[in-house]
Design a protein that fits this description.
This protein is of the alpha/beta class. About 40% of the residues lie in helices and about 15% in strands. It contains ten helices and eight strands.
């Protein structure tokens, strides 16, 4: 499907906000709060759907946002980890996507506002996400009624968080959905070259700058930062969704293959003509809405007949 003028306008605003961070990522003078505010402005243009309420909460010491649908089923919980290259973004930019997820799943959606690099580099996001997940368990939410989703950097964190939870001896959630995951910070996938210039939002130079700011000297192939290198044995089912135009395409396929080869039930969806995190545009892009419906069906299948008991 050709990109409509309305979608293109959203992409242009998103790209402009991302470019506003480039001088800071190169170490030039500037204001991170101002750059992040511009980035957030591009995301908040995506409307919150009707039928949900939004509130700011504390998730065991991690600030967060709770999205509750009018038709919420008490025991259904989605933990959503936002994207932004680990240097920008917040739950405030995901009321639209989170609200759509909430309505589709009839679930409460919890979105932790994790610390950002470069002020808080790797592994701060892993620690904060794990703290938020542990908080849900401490509330008494059954792990089998929890699902985890996220996009881009947050899409990679879906797998990294489950690995961290397993390593910490915590019970695992029912399923994970990784939207356009930034799964390999080495950026060795073939699509980093073959889709460069075709991907309308992401380029390798920008990714390299964000990876450097995030890692702060840590290895690019650190298993917690790049889940294609992680020990993923024993994880619950994972759905990986990626757009065919994305430079992250090859590494998302590699993530799905890595999960499969380690006996994790995995589903891979590759969407022709779609760009990075196209479900964000679900309000104006039918493929975005359909992708979220597919994600919801995957989660519903994993939840099965689980109840609060």
């Amino acid at each position: 499907m050709p990109i409509t003028p309305q979608v293109q306008a959203g992409l242009d605003a998103w790209n402009a906000a991302t470019m506003g961070m480039a001088p800071l990522l190169r170490g030039e003078p500037g204001s991170w709060p101002a750059a992040r505010a511009q980035y957030l402005g591009a995301l908040t243009a995506h409307p919150t759907p009707p039928g949900v309420t939004i509130e700011e909460i504390d998730m065991g010491g991690i600030p967060g946002t709770l999205v509750t649908p009018d038709a919420a089923v008490d025991y259904r919980v989605l933990l959503y980890i936002h994207g932004g290259g680990y240097v920008a973004g917040s739950p405030a930019g995901y009321h639209g996507l989170g609200g759509r997820y909430a309505n589709l799943l009839k679930a409460k959606v919890f979105m932790p506002d994790y610390r950002l690099a470069p002020e808080h580099p790797f592994p701060a996001v892993v620690d904060d996400s794990l703290s938020a997940y542990r908080w849900l368990l401490d509330l008494g939410v059954p792990p089998g009624s929890i699902a985890i989703s996220g996009d881009s950097a947050g899409g990679a964190m879906v797998v990294s968080l489950m690995v961290a939870a397993r390593n910490a001896g915590l019970p695992l959630p029912a399923a994970g959905v990784a939207l356009s995951p930034w799964a390999n910070l080495e950026h060795t996938g073939a699509s980093m070259k073959t889709r460069d210039g075709i991907d309308p939002t992401v380029n390798p130079i920008g990714l390299d700058l964000m990876a450097k700011a995030f890692l702060a000297g840590a290895r690019r192939n650190s298993p917690e930062a790049s889940p294609v290198f992680a020990d993923v044995r024993g994880l619950p089912p994972v759905l990986v969704m990626i757009g065919e135009r994305e430079i992250m395409l090859s590494d998302a396929i590699r993530l799905a293959t890595h999960l499969a080869e380690n006996r994790v039930r995995v589903s891979l969806e590759i969407w022709p003509d779609m760009f990075h995190v196209w479900p964000l545009f679900a309000a104006v892009l039918p493929e975005g809405e359909q992708a979220l419906r597919n994600a919801a069906r995957f989660i519903e299948d994993a939840w099965g007949g689980v109840s609060a008991a």
